[in-house]
Amino acid sequence: MTVRDGRAVAVVDVGAVERNCARLAAELQAGARLCAVVKADGYGHGAAECGRAALAGGATWLAVAAAAEAAELRAEFADVPLLTMGALTDEELGAALDARSEVAVWKLSHLERTAAHGEQRGLRPRVHVKYDTGMGRLGERDGDAVLAVVEAAAADQRLELAGFWTHFATADDRDSDFFDRQLERFAALVERVRAEHPDVLVHAANSAATLRDPAAHFDMVRCGVAIYGLDPFGADPYEQRLRPALELRSYVADVKRFDVGDSAGYGRRWRAPVETFVGVLPIGYGDGVRRALANNADVLVDGHRVPLVGMVSMDNITVELGPATQVSPGATATVIGAQGDERILCEEMARRLDTINYEVTCGISKRVPRVYVRSA
């Protein structure tokens, strides 16, 4: 990247997405399908582009959270099975069905509402009944009540019972046995549902559960973070044989000589302890570099780590280049990604922020253009 390419860019390697999906698909128990979760604009990577790469890598389904996301995807993918997993208002439900998306239900009232919308459109909506086995969000908690929803969906000729599903709360915590309790609770009802409805699609596993326990694969897994090369366990994606798909780059717009005590940024949160050089990068929290990274991050410049110093502002950050530097304006600066033998992973940034890796990618703003490449 040079100064001519713009102030900041997110480079997304769709080849990495494709290979990550192929690696995940190869992990699945016989017959299980891979659903690529591309909600929130593909976790900040680009939903359509990453969805296309995921399908090339072996995914056969796509999933989103919102009706508007379903509509956008359907415009790109005419015939791919699509699941909208989130809660829907009446207007959103209609939009999801217009996009020929399958939808989540967990109450008898949801069935009636969905059937009515389907009748208005001359459609027979396909519904996935959600069992809350311990996440404590959407879904019916009571086993008998959720079975009643399953049976009502199957009996209503205006609907098609398509799926039975749950979501794990602690699959990414290898020390937690709550995952095992959720899986046991779900599997017990799966046996009863399959006895009456052998064609229902059973799915539970997110990325972490997919890599953690084949018993959670059932008929389909729903992978989000892993397809983008983010480690679902928050450590190192390379240890999971995943390749990060996104790099966030800027450039050095200026290099300034600092005397002892000279400060950089709002509030003078950093002052030069020695004579040194400081580089100014035209990227900031308006682009997704969080303010909490002030004096708390590294950036790669000329293949070396340099510390981010001073407050992160909306449009700029500053990095210390040292008392002697060969860096000149126009040099590439990598906020997330690799230069030479050095790399800064989303997982590192997340640890510094006390958050998760995919909040980092979701936080890269629309102001940053996404550029798509395909590595060999």
Set out the fold topology:
Layout: E1 9-13, H1 14-27, E2 33-37, H2 39-43, H3 47-56, E3 61-64, H4 67-76, E4 82-84, H5 90-98, E5 102-105, H6 108-121, E6 126-130, H7 143-155, E7 160-165, H8 178-196, E8 201-203, H9 207-212, E9 220-223, E10 246-251, E11 254-258, E12 276-281, E13 298-301, E14 304-309, E15 317-322, E16 332-339, E17 342-344, H10 346-353, H11 357-362, E18 370-373
Parallel strand pairs: 1-18, 2-3, 2-9, 3-4, 4-5, 5-6, 6-7, 7-8
Antiparallel strand pairs: 1-10, 10-16, 11-12, 12-15, 13-14, 13-16, 14-15, 16-17
Helix pairs in contact: 1-3, 4-5, 5-6
CATH superfamily annotation of the largest domain: Alanine racemase
Radius of gyration over all CA atoms, rounded: 24 Å
Mean pLDDT figure: 97
Name the CATH architecture of the largest domain.
Answer: Alpha-Beta Barrel
Beta content: 15-25%
Please, could you describe this protein's structure?
By secondary structure, the protein is of the alpha/beta class. The protein folds into two domains: 14-228, Alanine racemase (TIM Barrel), CATH 3.20.20.10; 246-344, Lyase, Ornithine Decarboxylase, Chain A, domain 1 (Beta Barrel). Helix content is 30%, strand content 23%. It has eleven helices and 18 strands. The protein has helices spanning 14-27, 39-43, 47-56, 67-76, 90-98, 108-121, 143-155, 178-196, 207-212, 346-353, 357-362; strands spanning 9-13, 33-37, 61-64, 82-84, 102-105, 126-130, 160-165, 201-203, 220-223, 246-251, 254-258, 276-281, 298-301, 304-309, 317-322, 332-339, 342-344, 370-373. Strands 1, 10, 11, 12, 13, 14, 15, 16, 17 and 18 form a ten-stranded mixed sheet that branches. Strands 8-7-6-5-4-3-2-9 form an eight-stranded parallel sheet. Strand 13 and strand 14 (304-309) form a beta hairpin. Helix 1 crosses helix 3. It starts with 8 loop residues before the first strand and ends with a strand. The mean pLDDT is 97.
